[in-house]
Design goal:
- The protein has 18 helices and 22 strands.
- Strands 6-9-10-22-21-20-17-11 form an eight-stranded mixed β-sheet, with helices on both faces. A five-stranded mixed barrel has the order 1-2-3-5-4. Strands 12-13-16-14-15 form a five-stranded antiparallel β-sheet.
- Helix 14 packs antiparallel against helix 15.
- It has 592 residues and is of the alpha+beta class.
- Strand 1 and strand 2 form a beta hairpin.
- Helix content is 31%, strand content 24%.
- It is globular, with a radius of gyration of 30 Å.
- The protein binds aspartic acid (ASP).
- The site of aspartic acid (ASP) has 9 residues, from strand 21 and strand 22.
Length: 592
């Protein structure tokens, strides 16, 4: 038997017991004749102690133990004289009677402790060592627990988990597909699912009215901290439901997850915010509503004053930062630098300080009077002591820059606490999005999303105005999930394809099987999918989803541990009847 207990198990009630432990050597400390070893496994750390006076040979042996050696010890549990109340095993130690080295270890390239000296690239290269650290372990445990709770909740609500293919036909989630060549069908390719969207709709046609799946999805897009080429979704679909039914079901699941994983009880219904309001007041479709600071549009009020920046602007709006009137020149310069960063993209910042004495100090004194500022202050609901920050320019860009500025001010004012959660549903998304470059409409969600009944006629006359039965769950400014009520009528679906610029033949080639299925009695249905990795990272309080994925890829889509993707042999290429061209051919040749 390698062990009687884990390294996280022994307590004061175990004193005097003879035990056997196995684990990794985290640290060896010599204090006079005493040697202390921290022995670690997945469950915790237990202090081992060897007294050189009691056993000189053993003492010499343990002093030579290297970091991360795998050892087995037998010994007796004793009460510690100086207790460590920070760890659950901190009241006891094991007086070692015998020790066996099960394996030696090379010196790890970074310290395997909560606070490590390893940078991200190094930690990911040696991810198996990184995963020995508490924060990594806790993240994976949280992930496991969350998957369990999702399954429990969904199953109790009558949903069944059905697996769908990974090798499939291209799906229309709007990203690029990863493709897999088929040896048995030369020249043909599978696509990896961007989501199981079409399969879950087919399951509805098949009568499985409550489906879910915790499932890997694949999208070949540019990566960011909250994106991975392969990621996990909680994918769901229901039949005989309208939007309200779907929102209520998943609001229930969300509350259950908050309660079981974070011990946060959310009693109130989640606010429902129309997309148009989200854009108007927060400049984004994923507003962080942990704090107010809503945008105030003053375009009408201030244009025509002779101030060129305002007069030429399509949109002029701002926010009121409570209690910030004392901001110094330097503070304001910093904010100006912030909004001028290319990622934010604004040209300049106008400020209005509402002084405690009721006067205004502003960057546009030349163009406006104190009376004007008083009127602005009223619009912003500003009080003496507050600071109004204003941006102006082309509407879309300015709203988005103002959104960044609002979040920055939220950070500065400590209004974005990681342990405060503010969920909401954003609803009434537009069905379509116009793309200037390709001069065509794209589905804002995906082509199966149904328009609102009352807007169907607009599909012929003014497609840009059509609203969809689509919704997103947003928590703390992060899009956690989204879905829609689907089109279940083949005529409307065909019309939608037409608006999206598909010829009849293209629609038939890509989605003929779905259209066909819809002819055999498709029930009204709708669903949603949640980003599982993102949700775990929100609950874990970490900034990158990589921290909650066992073996993630870096920003270039590489697995730095096993160096994927990599070239394949010429024999493999031949078997697939594939030939590499240009850069790709050069690369392979240089690797050979
Ligand atoms: N398939 C969609 C997505 O991955 C979600 C849904 O509409 O259910 O975003």
């Amino acid at each position: 038997m390698y062990r009687t207990h884990t390294c996280g198990e022994l307590r004061i009630s175990d004193v005097d017991k003879s035990v056997t432990l196995s684990g990794w050597v985290q640290r060896v400390r010599n204090l006079g004749g005493m040697t202390f070893i921290d022995l670690r496994d997945r469950y915790g750390i237990t202090q081992l102690v060897v007294d050189s006076e009691a056993d000189d040979e053993l003492s010499r042996e343990v002093r030579n133990l290297g970091r991360e050696y795998v050892v087995q010890v037998v010994g007796q549990v004793a009460e510690r004289s100086s207790k460590n109340h920070k760890i659950p095993t901190g009241e006891v130690e094991v007086i070692v009677g015998g020790l066996k080295i099960l394996n030696s270890a090379d010196l790890p390239p970074f310290t395997i402790e909560d606070e490590t000296d390893g940078g991200e690239e190094l930690r990911m290269k040696y991810r198996y060592l990184d995963l020995r650290r508490n924060p990594a372990r806790q993240a994976l445990e949280l992930r496991h627990k969350m998957a369990l709770e999702v399954r429990k909740y969904m199953s109790d609500e009558g949903f069944i988990e059905v697996e769908t293919p990974v090798l499939m036909k291209s799906t229309p989630e709007g990203a690029r597909d990863f493709v897999v060549p088929s040896r048995m069908n030369p020249g043909q390719f599978y696509a990896l699912p961007q989501s199981p969207q079409v399969f879950k709709q087919l399951l509805m046609v098949a009568g499985y009215d409550r489906y879910f799946q915790i499932v890997k999805c694949f999208r070949d897009e540019d990566l960011r901290a909250d994106r991975q080429p392969e990621f996990t979704q909680i994918d769901c679909e229901m039949s005989f439901v309208d939007q309200e039914d779907v929102l209520n079901t998943f609001e229930g699941m969300t509350k259950h997850l908050f309660k079981t994983l974070r011990d946060v009880e959310i009693k109130d219904d989640f606010p429902r915010m129309p997309f148009a309001d989200a854009m108007k007041y927060y400049g984004t479709d994923k507003p962080d509503i942990r704090f107010e600071m809503k945008f105030v549009d003053i375009t009408e009020t201030v244009s025509g004053s002779g101030f060129k920046v305002f007069d030429e602007a399509e949109y002029i709006g701002g926010i009121c930062a409570k209690g910030c009137a004392q901001y110094s020149r330097k503070d304001l310069d910093k904010l100006t630098d912030f909004i001028k960063r290319p990622q934010v993209g604004a040209k300049g910042l106008v400020y209005v300080k509402y002084n405690d004495d009721g006067s205004f100090k502003t960057s546009v004194d030349k163009f406006f009077s104190q009376e004007d500022f008083k009127a602005w202050a009223e619009k912003f609901g500003a009080k003496p002591g507050d600071l109004i920050l204003i941006l102006a320019g082309e509407k879309k860009r300015t709203l988005s820059a103002l959104c960044e500025l609002r979040l920055e001010m939220g950070n500065r004012l400590g209004l974005r606490d990681k342990n405060t959660f503010a969920p909401l549903w954003v609803v009434d998304f537009p069905l379509l999005e116009w793309d200037d470059e390709t001069e065509r409409f794209y589905a804002m969600h995906h082509p199966f999303t149904s328009p609102k009944d009352e807007d169907v006629e607009l599909l012929d006359t003014n497609p840009a105005e059509v609203r969809a039965n689509a919704y997103d769950l947003v928590i703390n400014g992060v899009e956690i999930g989204g879905g829609s009520i689907r089109i279940h009528n083949d005529v409307l679906q065909q019309k939608m394809f037409k608006v999206l610029g598909f010829t009849e033949q293209e629609a038939e080639n890509q989605f003929g099987f779905l259209m066909n299925a819809f002819k055999y009695g498709a029930p009204p249905h709708g669903g949603v999918a949640f980003g599982f990795d993102r949700w775990v990272s929100l609950f874990a309080g970490v900034d990158s989803i990589r921290e909650v994925i066992a073996f993630p890829k870096n920003n270039a889509g590489r697995d730095v541990m096993n160096d994927a993707p990599s070239s394949i042999s010429n024999a493999q290429l031949e078997e697939l009847m594939l030939e590499l061209k240009g850069e790709a051919a050069k690369r392979t040749a240089s690797n050979e």
